[in-house]
Amino acid sequence: MRFHVSLFAAALGLACVLESLPWLLAPHRMRGAMRQLGRLPAEKLRVWGFLLLGIGLILVSLSRL
């Protein structure tokens, strides 16, 4: 398998764009969301992180078919 720097850069750029949109469009709501996330137990955040990681890996592998 070959590593494609341009594909990696495009994926990283897309991730940055998608991550920045909520902050750009609704910064006050994002602050509230961050406060709520700060109140959640670490274990719950870890479970959500694991689930999102799994979904991301599945989507990436399906896109490679």
| Class per helix and strand makeup | mainly alpha
Major beta sheet, specifics? none
Shape: flat
Indicate the low-confidence ranges by residue numbers.
Answer: none
Main attributes?
65 residues; mainly alpha; 3 helices; 0% strand; flat
Give me a quick take on this structure.
With 65 residues, this protein is mostly helical. The protein is built from 3 helices and no strands.
Overall description:
This protein is mainly α. The chain is built from three helices and no strands. Helix 1 packs across helix 2. The two termini are 14 Å apart.
Q: What's the topology here?
A:
Layout: H1 5-25, H2 27-39, H3 42-63
Helix pairs in contact: 1-2
